[in-house]
Amino acid sequence: xSYLRLVVLVLTLFVNSLRGLWxxxxxxxxxxxxxxxxxxxxxxxxYCPVPEETSVFWRAKGNKRNGRNLKTLVREAMDAGNFTxxxxxxxxxDYKVLLIHKYNVSLNEKILSxxxxxxxxEAKNYSGHFRCSWLGTKTDVVYVFEAQRGGYTIHCENPLxxxxxxxEVNCQDNESCQYGEESQYIEVVLxxxxxxxxxxxxxxxxxxxxTKPDPPSDLKKSGKxxxxxxxxxxxxxxxxxxxxxxxxxxxxxxxxxxxxxELHKDIEVPQLTLKHKGKLTFCVQARDMYYKSSWSEWxxxxxxxxxxxxxxxxxxxxxxxx
Length: 322
Prior knowledge:
The structure is a single chain. The protein is mainly beta. Helix content is about 5%, strand content about 45%. The protein has two helices and 23 strands. The protein has helices at about 1-15, 205-210, and strands at about 20-25, 30-35, 40-45, 55-60, 65, 70-75, 80-85, 90-100, 120, 130-135, 140-150, 150-155, 160, 165-170, 185-195, 195-205, 215-220, 225-235, 245-255, 260-265, 270-275, 280-290, 300. The longest helix has 15 residues, at about 1-15. One of its GO terms (cellular component) is extracellular space.
């Protein structure tokens, strides 16, 4: 069975790597033409699905072309666009949308030109939910996002634009079993369409590769004299059964007037005891104990600020009446 999956994957990658004309299945009647740097172009042929005796014509690049078959040479974006097949009375019978995909071009020529790998994905736990994001500086771009694992499709919401040109999409793998070992990769594809141009960006990962817990919560300091106990809790978004999904912690302690901070690594329980008199602050971050994925962001305790005593003001004496 594993061999069969491997063969299917190899065939899929092989088919997707062919240059020429191919259909973009996620958008109806949309086709992509792959054009290299040389700009030799691609001869594109479309067929209007009507009986042979039906009189039809195509509207292409502003021109009228009679017949069911349309042949056009595509070299650049101006050659792409909408192609419509009309009956003799002018009614539209069929249509095709043709987009240009330029490959082997510089980063500056791409629709998403901020990074070679613009899509970043992250999960807070193993529930099957993950979020992907990217930066899009151009406002006239349409994004379509899809994800799959093995032979099934993972549900993803429509991409939303956030602040600072950041786009996000939430996905939920309902077939994922958080208590089982992952055996198949998740593949996500971001499709970007800008007028007559097209490009896509792909990421392949396991959930465990992209898991980054939220920071620990409820940081507290307790103790008397020189015995100090630092305590914190697992993040609320982490898996409930901590014995099955344990975290390890790094603790960074800053003591008042004591110079450089102390870093305590790979603490296996949400508690640390130490000897210290005086004020201190501590910061904690978390990571999966058994898989070296990403550490959470740091979260820090706060100083206990002492209240300053204010002297009570004496009431001013009222002026004597003359």
